[in-house]
């Protein structure tokens, strides 16, 4: 397995394929191991590197559903996954993640114990909104590259080509921080990994308090 992962790292470096940052990998794996999820949804397969990390670090019976827009990358990911010990527990779906998240075959896999977002940065708020109803009552949602080269928390002028992306990432972090039931920390090693712990019972309690307050008012 280590030899395969090393091969994938070299492939990604040569072809400039984004995979989880080396500085974040140990923290990423530790979180997955600690949470020990059984059902996992990944948004953004790329060449399958993080899907393999998820499968290796999760519960022994874990199933990984992963979404990838590029047919070429999905095909390459499938080749790598087929050579791993986890070929039978990782399923790749090809298409636009925003649309796939609303399809019955993806929703049928819910509730998911863990969701990992590492796809189009400008779509993170949409992914968050569509993934939240698919989470188990107690789940974790991970999102990579949320600080995007330091621009998201910077007051410096953002290059024009990055402005929409940075604004969407800022919106995502607001959603992850302010949505009832969510508690979010950001690991700043690498490009920023947002770790959102979700508690549906806390969301229900917050909603009920808000309703009671409105009635009294």
UniProtKB/TrEMBL annotation:
The UniProt entry's GO biological process terms, in alphabetical order, are: methylation
Q: Which InterPro entries match?
A: SAM-dependent_MTases_sf, SAM_O-MeTrfase
**Keyword S-adenosyl-L-methionine among UniProt keywords:** yes
Any GO MF annotation of the entry: O-methyltransferase activity
Q: Which domain of life is it from?
A: Bacteria
Q: Which PROSITE patterns match?
A: SAM_OMT_I
* Gene3D superfamilies per UniProt: Vaccinia Virus protein VP39 (3.40.50.150)
Q: Which PANTHER family match?
A: CATECHOL O-METHYLTRANSFERASE 1-RELATED
Q: What is this protein called?
A: O-methyltransferase
């Amino acid at each position: 397995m280590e030899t395969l992962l090393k091969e994938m790292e070299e492939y990604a470096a040569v072809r400039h394929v984004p995979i989880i940052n080396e500085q974040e990998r140990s923290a990423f794996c530790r979180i997955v191991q600690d949470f020990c999820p059984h059902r996992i949804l990944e948004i953004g397969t790329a060449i399958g590197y993080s899907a393999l990390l998820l499968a290796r670090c999760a519960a022994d019976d874990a199933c990984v559903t992963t979404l990838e827009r590029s047919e070429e990358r999905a095909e390459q990911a499938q080749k790598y996954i087929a050579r791993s010990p986890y070929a039978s527990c990782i399923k790749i779906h090809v298409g636009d993640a925003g649309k796939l998240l609303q399809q019955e075959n993806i929703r049928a896999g819910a509730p998911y114990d863990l969701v990992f977002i590492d796809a189009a940065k400008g779509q993170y708020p949409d992914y968050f909104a569509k993934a939240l109803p698919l989470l188990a009552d107690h789940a974790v949602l991970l999102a990579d590259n949320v600080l995007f080269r330091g621009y998201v928390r910077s007051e410096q002028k953002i290059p024009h080509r990055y402005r929409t992306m940075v604004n969407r990432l800022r919106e995502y972090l607001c959603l992850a921080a302010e949505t009832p039931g969510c508690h979010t920390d950001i690991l700043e090693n690498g490009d920023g990994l947002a770790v959102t712990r979700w508690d549906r019972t806390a969301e229900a309690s917050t909603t009920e308090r808000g309703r009671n307050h409105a009635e009294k008012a």
